[in-house]
Amino acid sequence: MLLEKRVARAPEEAVTIAAPSPEDAVALLQPDELDYGGAGPAEVRFVLALLRRFPHAPRVAAACCNALASLCVGTGSRRRRAALVAGRGCDAVAAAMGRHGGDAALQRWAAQLFWILADDGRKDNRLAVWNAGGVDAVRAALKRHAGAPAVQRFGRGALAQLGAEASTPAKKKKRSPRRASAL
């Protein structure tokens, strides 16, 4: 078989991927192929390896962001989120957002992933998103996909959790002129 997947269970083991094409990589990320229920940090490393192996394939990047968002919720997700941050996953996701700015699905899943990481309550997760350029990537996605409700919802949620909504330029309120007091 052309597809091979070996996900290491020990942190020191390497991830092996034999996905000869982007289509094969997307197939590996389907729920019947990737064990989301029993997933651990090794599955996060596997998805990040796929994302890095096919940097110019927007479908792979979208599927990877979807998989990462799915892996970062539910039972045991704290360990998976920690593996994502430790593996510089925020850098890879922010780079994919910048590289494939026109792909609304990728922008949606990446923004949702950043929201999940920021909502964890861990300062290191929020800092990882900020340091990777995730806030700027989400702002660019919001601007570029103004008509995409899912991008808007998850993008705004991510920025709110990251505390970035305050640093966006706000419109100044018009002040009414003061009345001159009579002497």
CATH topology-level fold name = Leucine-rich Repeat Variant
Sequence of strands across the biggest β-sheet: 1-2
The portion of residues forming beta strands comes to under 5%
Q: If classified by CATH, what would the architecture be?
A: Alpha Horseshoe
First CA to last CA: what distance?
93 Å
Number of domains: 1
> What's the total number of strands?
2
Uncertain ranges: 6-13, 166-183
Largest sheet: 2 strands, antiparallel
**Quaternary organization:** single chain
Rg result? 20 Å
Helical content class? 55-70%
Structural class: mainly alpha
The mean pLDDT is 83
| Overall outline | globular
Task: Give the C-level CATH assignment.
Answer: Mainly Alpha
N-to-C SSE string, H for helix and E for strand: EEHHHHHHHHH
Q: Please count the helical segments.
A: 9
